Amino acid sequence: MPPAKRRARTYDSAKIRAAVLAQFGNVRDGVRALTEEQLARPTDLGDWSVRELAAHITMAVETVSRNLDRDEPPKAELGLLDWPLATAARAGDIADGSSRLAAENPDLDALYARTGQRLTERLATAPDDRLLAARTGVMTLADYLVTRTVELVVHTDDLNRAAGTEIPFDRQALAACTRLLADALAVKAPGASTEVRIPPYAVVQCVEGPRHTRGTPPNVVETDPLTWIRLATGRVAWKAALEDAKVSASGERADLGGLLPLMG
User: 0.90 cut: is pTM over it?
Assistant: First the structure.
């Protein structure tokens, strides 16, 4: 009998909305403090500079406002757990748009101010079930906002590593990002032979094989949230994380190297 289709976990809408706004505010404060030398530094994201990465982060939330301004699509096409695995196809378009946005907006703080104001105003009246025509497919606003926690957390980490900053992570945003990417792994590799632990935010079972029912699971992977996010998004390779003792893996089915990254 094939495994049952995994149901998406539920997220508190008010907390997710607050988390998106809070993390965007954290990034704005961090970007405002960057020097020209820091803005010119390269990142690990292709040819992007820190300035282009900072501009891209505004795109990640402006897409909410922009789609709320458009006519509502007739029906949803993409569930929340489908989103992480559907991101690779749009990578080229996103890169081109970010470079252009950075060139057209030398005053990054003004760009962040406009973007944040638009987002706050539109979220004040938009219902959770409002449909948005996102790049990856039509989603509800509630689901799409969860994906924005992934964009914001992942790129906050990118900024910190590239610019040498310590922009903080909103706890709710970090939790939602971690959980969505963990659940996406369980969708990609359904099963219950391996337990993946990402304390304090997520535990999922995945990978085909004998089902564990009691006691300590025979196959266990454990890591911290940021390491998991880097693995899931291709910022860190599985082998390197093991060698650096950033992840522990025990059992013959605990090698996740062939399943990662999850996002393009």
Answer: yes
